[in-house]
Amino acid sequence: MIVAEPKPIAEVAELIKTGRHVLIVGCGECVTVCQAGGEKEVEVLASALRILWKKEGKDGTIDTQTIVRQCEPEYVAELAKKVKDADIVLSLGCGVGVQFIAEAYPDKWVVPGLNTKFGGGTVKAGVWEERCGFCGDCILHLTGGICPVIRCSKSILNGPCGGSQDGHCEVAKDIPCAWQLIYDRLKGLGRLELLDEIRPPKDWRTSRDGGPRKFVKEEAMIE
Amino acid sequence: MTGERTELTTATAGGDGVYATPSRLERVLKAGHFAVTCEIGPPQSAKAEGIRKHAEVLKDYSDGQNLTDNQTAIVRLCSLAAAVHVKAAGGEPIMQMTARDRNRIAIQSDILGAASLGISNLLCLGGDHQTFGNHPGARNVHDIDSIQMIQIVRQMRDEKKFQCGAEIKSDEPRMFVGAAENPFGDPFEFRVRRLAKKVAAGAEFIQTQCIFDLERFERFMRMVRDEGLDEKVYILAGITPAKSAKALQYMQTVPGMRVPDELIKRMAGAEDQKAEGVRIAVEMIQALKEIKGVRGVHIMAIAWESIVPEIVEKAGLYPRPKVA
Fold first, then answer.
1. How many CB atoms lie within 10 A of CB B293?
2. Cα B87 to chain center, whole Å?
């Protein structure tokens, strides 16, 4: 899933300070799971901002709506009525959600309430970790199911570098060295010979280096 | 000429048949001399005087002088320009290049430029992570890694092709290609296999991380010999003279370094710690000379370049051999 975290409330207050009628939009997908932009977080933020405005003596309304997903136009369309009454839309979706709302309502000022962080998953309650860098050319079959592109701080394809020590990355002791993990797993599976092959330079065109990406599945197209 | 001729079994292709490049370091190593290389750290300014002064002295005490490439990710005068200053002072520059700050386009472009300026030794590195340096918010590149860089430089030289496969129609860059290896990194049992990958990629010489833990380095070299790698690549063992016990303590905290506590104790107990640092370095060189497969030493006197001549003399490695 896409993992995101809330922007500090002071920053959010600054982003909406010119508004008098703000609509906060939640999303029922990834950001609900990582507890950053679901219905609950939307209501908590709305209350906090109302209190803040009251303290500042500011006159205005803060409304809320949480939709199934912000990354699909048919759900974004459900916002039409409330968006019409708002002068600023504060999206608690990921960066994709913010943009889909902005595209659907060209005359509305749409701002982000979250910082979108990475593609990852829940490792334990309250902790999410990065797993995928969306490079567009998966090599997990070569590395024992552990991604060096995003989990190695230097994206080394022929690792580990000389900074790997006692299982952690040179960047910080709380970052596991991806190549130590890869080594341990391949050793356990009896597949260490995979590490003797020199991996050639990656073709980064499938990543963002090739420009913004698009995926078309023709059989899924209606028109 | 001193020492017996111990030419490696893998003669490098191209060039005039015997030598692959114009590098003097290549000639020293292929003649079987126990090589000495050292390191000059470029300044955080546009002043080249210090580089030239160090080069004028060090050219007689070493067979090659490494120019670091924004080491520890701190912005410094670039290694290419520094190498040109060393060359002008009569030295034998070994240009370091990291994959951290350049993509494959910039790397190949800089290699062409360096070769056009008479530089013929290149050390291919991944590079310290930028969060260690003075621009921690910088974006890192890592388009390719150090092993891929080795392959690219060798391909440019031996196959006269750019990484993309396009032909280099004339004047291909002829670099003597080096790489680094850290015998103190983990997983320890994989370090030698990774070294083998660097050799397979085309590394001709290796400069190791500085050695304080001799016991572990000896174990590493035993594994190197078991794989026959000492016959395929020239290994120069890394030496860093320390000025004080405090400096050693600091190095103990650097990722990928191992400094035994006894060494720090010995240094702390010394009356003149700088002199003790020199003594330790000299003893280390003498011990390393006895290890089969070690073809030289690489002295990294960080911000203490002026001490190198004394260490080289005391280790019995002066004068340096003259090669054509």
1. 16
2. 17
Inter-chain CB proximity B193 and A156 less than 8 Å: no
Residue B189: pLDDT over 80: yes
Those residues with Cβ within 8 angstroms of residue B37's Cβ, 6 or more apart along the chain or in another chain: B25, B62, B63, B64, B65, B66, B94, B207, B236, B296, B297, B298, B299
Does A196 touch chain B if contact means CB atoms closer than 8 Å?
yes
Distance to chain B for A48, nearest Cα, Å: 32
- Domains of chain A are 2-118 (3.40.50.2300), 136-205 (no CATH)
Which of B123, B112, B114, B119 lies closest to B150, judged by CA?
A: B123
Give the percent of chain A with pLDDT over 90: 99
Q: Report how far apart, in Å, the C-alpha atoms of A190 and of each of A185, A193, B127, B190, B194 are.
A: 9, 8, 31, 14, 17
pLDDT digits 0-9 by tens, B84-118: 999 999 999 999 999 999 999 999 999 999 999 99
First-to-last alpha carbon distance for chain A, in angstroms, is 29
pLDDT in tens, A96-140: 999 999 999 999 999 999 999 999 999 999 999 999 999 999 999
Report the run of H or E that residue A27 belongs to, with start and end: strand A21-27
Quote the pLDDT of residue B14. 40
- Report the SS3 class of residue B109: helix
A4 CA to chain B: closest CA distance, Å? Answer: 20
CA pair distance B188, A184, nearest whole angstrom = 12
Report whether pLDDT(B9) > 50: no
The mean pLDDT of B35-62, rounded to a whole number, is 98
Across A9-37, b (16+ Cβ under 10 Å) vs e yields eeebbebbeebeebbbbbbbbbbbebbbb
pLDDT of A73 over the 90 cut: yes
Structural domains of chain B, with CATH: 24-241+294-300 (3.20.20.220)
Q: Scanning every residue of chain A, which has its alpha carbon at the shortest distance from the alpha carbon of B182?
A: A162
Chain A touched by B194 (CB under 8 Å): yes
Taking contacts as CB-CB distances below 8 angstroms, the residues of chain B near A171 are 129, 131
Band of residue B1 on the pLDDT scale cut at 50, 70, 90: very low
Q: Note whether A163 contacts B128, CB cutoff 8 Å.
A: yes
Q: Is B297 on the interface with A (CB under 8 A)?
A: no
- Residue among B146, B155, B190, B258 with most chain A CBs within 10 A, to mutate: B190
pLDDT at B5 over 80: no
Query: How many alpha carbons lie under 13 Å from residue A100 in its C-beta half-sphere?
Result: 20
